[in-house]
Amino acid sequence: MTHADNQSGQQPTRQGGGLACLARWSGRQWCLLGALGCALLLGVAFVLQFAFGLAPCSLCIFQRVAVAVAGVFFLLGAVHGPGRIGTRVYALGALAGSVGAIVLAGRHVWLQSLPPDQVPACGPGLNYMLEVLPVWDVITQVLNASGECAQISAQWLGLSIPQWSLIGFCALALVPLAMLWSSFRR
C-alpha cells in the first residue's frame, strides 16, 4: 500500500498477470494480433516463393487462401472494434480459416510421409485446371492432391515447410480460440 492509499483508506487493486491479463484484451486487440499473425505467415510464404524460388504446389496455394480468409476476419474485427457478440462472430470466421489451413497442411504433411510407391500420380497444374474445370472439381482434385505436393523441396531444422506451416496455423488458431474464451469471461 502506498502512503496515499493509507490516507484514503482504499485497498490497492491487484492487477493479475498471465492469462488474467489476456482476458482483459478487447476484440480489437485480439484481431490486431491475429491480423499480424496472418501477415507474418503470408509474408514468409511469399519470401520463400519469390526470394528463394520455392514454387508453391496447389495445396500450398489453398493454405494461403485459408490464411487470407482468417486474415480478412481479423482485419474486419480490427477496423470494427467489436463488442462481445461481434468478437465471437469474427473469432468464428477466423477460426474457420485457421482450421481450414490446419486441415490442408495436415493433408500435405501426410502426403509427404507416404512411401514413394503410394504417392498419387502428378496431375495437371492448378492454372490449367482453373481454366478448364469448374471450381468445385478443381477443389476436389487439389484435395485429392498430386505427386507434386508430396515432394519435400526444403527443410529447416529438420522440418519441411508444410510441417512448419502446420505449426504456424495451429498457433494462429489459438488467437480466435482466445478471443472466444475472453468474450465468454467478460
In short:
The chain is mainly alpha-helical and 186 residues long.
SS element count, helices: 8
State the share of residues found in helices, binned by percent. Answer: 55-70%
Low-confidence stretches: none
What's the total count of β strands? Answer: 2
List keywords for this structure.
186 residues, mainly alpha, two-stranded antiparallel sheet, 8 helices, 2 strands, 70% helix, elongated
Overview of the molecule:
The protein is mostly helical. Helix content is 70%, strand content 2%. The protein has helices spanning 3-8, 19-23, 27-50, 58-80, 84-113, 126-132, 135-144, 161-185; strands spanning 155-156, 159-160. The protein has a two-stranded antiparallel ribbon with strand order 1-2. A hairpin with a 2-residue loop joins strand 1 (155-156) and strand 2. The protein is elongated, with a radius of gyration of 22 Å. The protein starts with a helix and ends with a helix.
Topology:
Blueprint: H1 3-8, H2 19-23, H3 27-50, H4 58-80, H5 84-113, H6 126-132, H7 135-144, E1 155-156, E2 159-160, H8 161-185
Antiparallel strand pairs: 1-2
